[in-house]
Amino acid sequence: MAEEIEDLQAILRDDPYNFQARRTLSIALLDAGFNEEAKKNLLYLIRSFPDNAELLYNLGIAYEKLKQFDKAENAYIRAIEISPETDFFYNLGITFIEEEKYEEAIPVFKKVLEAEPDDSNSYFNLGLCYFKTREFDSALENFQKTIELNDSDLYAHFYIGNIFKEEGLLELAVEQFNKVLSLSPDYSWAYFNLGSIAYEMGDTENAIFYLKSTIQYNHLDLEAYKILNKIYLKQERYMEATDLIKDAMEAIPQNGDLYYNYAQIFKSQGDTEKWQKALAETIKNHKTLTYPFDGVKKELKEANAILKEHQKELPPQPEAAPEQIPEPQEELPQEEPSENPEAIEE
Predict the structure, then answer these.
(1) CA 203/CA 197 separation, integer angstroms
(2) For the whole model, what pTM was predicted?
């Protein structure tokens, strides 16, 4: 690939108007991940060939790879206006999803399926759009069509599991999440969903197993830490809870939710001083706090009031004796320095 790019660049140095070489170079650059360079070459070509749908389509791909989705959308729409190719519609639909324009994406993927009725990817993306707009019946229909065509699509199984979970069909949800794990044994979100379902059903043993597995495969899963900490507190497993939140704080530093969970450990143990300090840190990190802020402030006031009462109950401390001025002493002779400099430091 690198050699091909160098050869094409050499051709263009000798003949900058060799449009075929520049078009081939643009595709090679896209394939190699040089998206900015590909974009520049494609824009150069489009100035000479503004009605070339294929060039506009490739420009859309370059913009999409550069995360410039609004420009990708415009490029794909211009390409479709010139030549309504199925691939152009598909990429436009993907761009709409990236822009969270799910309702606009739905008719686009339907258009793709008119031309390619067995395209499992389009069924999946259509299901995803319906899922995001909370049209779960339509989403389920399209995800099920996806796995009819491709049973190894773990994401379709995952979203079917989420729909069943949302509708309270927990046994069916568990079946789907287990299917996901059979396809991808390290998929942390499937473990999390199985853990949260087990917790909801009162099966704490399995909840602990699945939530620990979640953290094993994704040490940044904040919700897994929170639910697992809640279980440990109910079981009065304070040392494990403390170790858990300390590990979480290393993975996700300065997080308000974690400080609040830390505070709950000390509150459960009756350690008011550490409870108060952890709540104070929670307030400092309020930007990452999802618990109700007013509730945390109220709890901090409660902790402060308890500490104040404790201070009142303490016996009065005797006044410190006035500082005595030490008597002058003879200056002691200085010791000879050691020949070993390391010994001095010790």
Answers:
(1) 9
(2) 0.82
Could you tell me how far CA 218 lies from the centroid of its own chain? 10
* Under 8 Å between Cβ of 292 and 272: no
Helix (H) or strand (E) holding 247: helix 238-251
Q: Where does the chain show beta strands of DSSP type E?
A: none
Domains of the chain: 1-83 (1.25.40.10)
Q: Residue 75 to residues 42, 69, 94, 112: CA-CA distances in angstroms?
A: 11, 10, 13, 18
pLDDT tens digits, the chain, 346 residues: what are they?
787 887 677 877 777 777 888 888 888 889 999 999 999 999 999 999 999 999 999 999 999 999 999 999 999 999 999 999 999 999 999 999 999 999 999 999 999 999 999 999 999 999 999 999 999 999 999 999 999 999 999 999 999 999 999 999 999 999 999 999 999 999 999 999 999 999 999 999 999 999 999 999 999 999 999 999 999 999 999 999 999 999 999 999 999 999 999 999 999 999 999 999 999 999 999 999 999 999 999 999 999 999 888 777 666 656 555 544 344 444 434 433 333 333 323 3
Q: How far apart are CA 147 and CA 160, in angstroms?
A: 10
Give which of 136, 197, 206 is closest to 170, Cα–Cα: 197
Tell me if residue 298 falls in helix, strand or coil.
helix
Place of tokens 């402060």: 304
Q: Which residues contact 239 (CB under 8 A, 6 or more apart)?
A: none
Q: DSSP label at 336?
A: P
Helix axes 188-200, 170-183, angle to 10 degrees: 160
